[in-house]
Amino acid sequence: MDCNCVSDLLIPPVPALWTPGIAFPDWAYKPESSPGSRQIQLWHFILELLQKEEYNAVIAWQGDYGEFVIKDPDEVARQWGLRKCKPHMNYDKLSRALRYYYNKRILHKTKGKRFTYKFNFSKVVLVNYPILDMANSPFFLAQNHFNGGSTAPDCTPEAIQSLFPRLPDSGRGTSLFDRGTAAPGPDGDKLRLDAFPFLSTGAPCYTKPPSLLGPYPRNPPFDYPWGFNPYLPGAFSLNNCPKLPPGSLYPSQFYPNPLQSSLSQLPHPFSSLLPPGEAGGGERGAAGQTGGTNGTAGGQPVRLCLPPYPGSLLMGRTDIGNGASLAERERGEANPPGTGLSFGLAAGTGTGRQSPTERRGGVKQDPESDSDLEITDLSDSSSDNENEHDFNIRKASSLASRSQIVLDGKKRSALPPVSSPPATAAPHPLKSLMPVSPPPLSLPLSLSPSVALHEKHRETETLKMIHS
DNA sequence: CTCGGAACGA
DNA sequence: TCGTTCCGAG
Length: 468
Description:
single chain, 4-stranded antiparallel beta sheet, globular
C-alpha cells in the first residue's frame, strides 16, 4: 500500500546510468537507446530477482540456459508490484507482460513447465550490447586454437579485468570504455560491460572470425552475432570452464563458484557477480543507491554484485579448450544427438535444439522489431527459440563490424584491451579467484596472427557493410 | 496455466 | 514503448 517503491526494491529506480547492483551494465537499462524505457523493465527485474539468492525460493534459474522458474508467482508479482508501485499486481498481469516478451523474443515460455520461462540472452545481450566486440575480447582471443594452450589470458584476472574493469574487488570504478582517459563521453557508459559473465563466456565460442575457425570447411549457420547463443551448448561456456558436476543441469558458467554449496542456486550468468558481502543480498537498498548516480563516475564504487569469491567471474573458464566436453554434456541433456557441437563453437549443424520441450511453431514473427531490444539484425527472426542457435559466422562478423560502425571513432578506445597481458598466471580455477590487480590501462593489441587476421576480417566486413 | 486481443495509462 | 488491467478461449 505504501508503495514502498524504494525500500523494497532490489534495485532502486535509478537514473539512467546507474549501475545496478546486479552488475548489469548501464546500458542494460538502455536509457538512451530506449526513450520509453526509463524505468526498470520487467525482464530486468526478473533478472534481478534471479540474481538475488534470497529470492531463490521465489524464482530461480533452472533447467536450460537462461531458463528460470517462478516458484512463487504471487511473490514475484508482489515484488514487481512493489517495484512498480502497482499494489494490485498479480501473476496474471505480470505474466501478461511477460508474454509480450515472447514477440520480442527476450523471453519465451518453456512449454510444459509451469511458470517456467527462458531468457533469450542473446537478445538481451546483443540488443543492449551491440558494440561489444567480443572478437577482441581476451577471452575470445585466448581460447582459440591459435593460442595453442599457451597461457590463455582468458582466464586471467587481468583478462577478466580488461573485460570487466569494474569488477568487484577492483573498486576502481574504471569502466570498460571510459577508462581510456580518452573522452569517455556520455556514451562511454553504453559500452560498459560491468559484468556479463555469460556474455564473455559465450562469445569466445563463436565469435571467432572465420580465420580463427580454422579448418572447418563451412561456416555453420549461426544466428548469434558474437556467437552468443544461450541455447547452444557451450553458449555460456567458455572453453575454460571447470567441469560441471555430473548430472548438473547447468553449464559451468552457471556456477560462479565451484565451491558454492548450493549449486541449485547458482546457475545463472549474473550471479557470479554477487559480492561476497552481499551474500545475503539484501543490503543493496541503502548503500546501493546512495552514490548510485551512475557507475560511470570513475572511482565511484560500483554496486556490482561481487562474486561469492572474488574473481568468481572467472569461473567457468578454466578448462581450456574443452568446449567439446561441455558441448557433449549439454548435448546430452538438451540436444538431439547428432548435433555436433564439438568445439564449443557449436558446429551447430543448425539443428541442434536445446529444449525440445518448447517449440513455438510459429512464434509471431518478430513484429518488426521495434523493441529497443531489437538488435540490428539477428536474422534469427525466422528462427526463434530453439532455432536461434543457428549461427552464422558471417553474420557474426558482420555484426561485429556493424558494432564498430556504431562505435565509430571510439571503436578502439571503446574496446577493452584486447589482449590483456598474457596472463602469466596459470588460470587455476581457484587461483583465478584471487583478487585481481588492475590491468594495464592501455595495452597494445597483441597482434598475434589471429588477431591480425581477425582485424583484417573485420575491416573487410565493415567495408561490406558500408557498401551494402 | 497459458495465450493473446484490446483498451488504456504514463 | 512498456506495461497494466480485463477478459475470453484453449
